[in-house]
Design brief:
Layout: H1 7-22, E1 29-35, E2 38-45, E3 52-56, H2 63-66, H3 71-75, E4 79-83, E5 93-94, H4 104-114, E6 120-125, H5 127-138, E7 143-149, H6 160-168, H7 177-187, H8 193-196, H9 199-211, H10 227-234, E8 237-242, H11 246-258, E9 263-266, H12 273-276, H13 278-290
Parallel strand pairs: 3-4, 3-6, 6-7, 7-8, 8-9
Antiparallel strand pairs: 1-2, 2-4, 2-5
Amino acid sequence: MKTYRSEKAGREILRTYDLLLEQWGVDKEERDISGTYGTTHCILCGSESSPPLVLFHGVGDDSALMWLYNAKALAEKFRLYVIDTIGGPGRSRFNERYGKDFDDLIWLDEVIGALSLGAVSIVGVSHGAHLAQFYAANRPERVRKIVCIAGSVPVGDESPMKTMMKIFLPEALFPTKKNTAKLLRKLCGKHVGVFLENETVMAHYGALLRGFNNMAMRFHQVTGLPEEQIDAIRGKTLYLIGEEDPFAKLGGKDALLRCKMNAQFFPNAGHAINHELAPEINRQIITYLQA
């Protein structure tokens, strides 16, 4: 199994990845952490004396794109540990042990343990929100607070893959420039210009659609949390959701309301809410985690 559909595709994804990192506008260092399933790439920025904050991106994207409009503001208040999910299209690399026996908890324990952190806060977007909730539920002593952006509480048994297919198809199958823009308009609210007007973002996202092998992420199992774990994380979790997010419309918002989770909903924003409303989302994250 390969991360990229070809070597050429991989080179283009990583070339534009580095260009996006340059747009973060913050000093950073990069580190590779070895573990059971390969090496996990981590970007560190912010003062080492600041509280630790771990960031997880979603499926089909990477750290460079996900935190483009958030890293600088968050690094002013926290020491950031920005993780490229193993199996994703960033700079993490899996080995021969990454397969059907992959365990997210082992992977996360190894990564966070290698960073020599105490209790951390976590911010995750989409699939990253699931990782944040999963880790907070299974390692409560290691997690202070979490912020889940464009993600819902994991209940029910509907396949996440089916939901993604409803949203991403057919544009993702034919990722021309026109279809890439069309897909972004489906995912976002009225502020989609933060993508469409940034040439590097469009080049990188188009390269991801054309060149990333999505099957490389299939070993990350997204399963519902039992009621007692949902109760346990309720008091330490904030959800930030766009009203125009297609995932929210397909049941995510109803699940949050039904489970009485601490959620805030923003009009005119979609699945990329942390890009679309970056200043407000940055403020919400900082305020909640510092309270």
